[in-house]
Amino acid sequence: MINYKKIAYTTFIVTTVSSVALLMSGSVGAITNTSNTSNMSLSAVLAQKYNLSQSSVRSTIQQYNKTHHKNSLYEKRLMNAVKKGKITLAQEKNILTEHKQLIQSIKTAKTDTATQKKALIKADRSKAKAWAKTNNVPFGLLFEHHKKHQHN
Predict the structure, then answer these.
(1) Where are the alpha helices (DSSP H) in the chain?
(2) Is position 32 within any domain?
(3) Closest alpha carbon to 127 in 109, 150, 105, 151
(4) Which of 57, 66, 88, 142 has the fewest CB within 10 Å, making it most exposed?
(5) What is the CA radius of gyration of the chain?
(6) Highest-scoring range by mean pLDDT, 30-34, 104-108, 138-142, 148-152
(7) CB neighbours of 95 closer than 8 A, spacing ≥ 6?
(8) Does any domain span residue 24?
(9) Does residue 18 lie within any of the structural domains?
């Protein structure tokens, strides 16, 4: 004897599951597209959104991160000098201003010849020494120092 209740129940379940699957397929596609974007790197997303080269966007982000990290280390070094009493807050502010001017001078020297760069750096160094002496700050604090760790 055929059990019509079981057949009807099974048909109902299969139809319901199929309908839900069909409805969800559009949502799943949208979810998949969203997750693909979230798995993309920041440079890929920006490049795609603004129609730019991904390599140039990645390069810009890397340069920004490198510069930002470098500046924050230098500023942290100056703040430590303030905490240790080697310089005052006013001196720190003056050092940062002078440091920015030195960096700008060095950046403009990049277009000069090797001889011109050398002369400019020598002149900048002399000015920086005189500035440090006049402002009673350690000369070494005007420059970013990156000590290499020596392994024994």
Answers:
(1) 4-39, 42-50, 54-83, 89-109, 114-134
(2) yes
(3) 105
(4) 66
(5) 32
(6) 138-142
(7) 78, 87, 137, 141, 142
(8) yes
(9) yes
Q: d(Cα 41, Cα 64) in Å, to the nearest integer?
A: 16
In a domain, 108, yes or no: yes
| Cα–Cα dist 35/58, whole Å | 21
**CB neighbours (10 Å) of residue 71?**
15
- Lookup result for tokens 């959104």: 49
pLDDT digits (tens, 9 = 90+) for 113-130: 888 888 888 998 999 999
How many structural domains are present in the chain?
Answer: 2
**Structural domain for 16, as ranges:** 4-39
State the Cα–Cα distance between residues 6 and 103, nearest whole angstrom. Answer: 83
- How many residues can be counted in the chain? 152
Half-sphere exposure of 37 (CA within 13 A, CB side): 10
* Measured CA distances, 13 to 4, 20, 138 (Å): 14, 11, 81
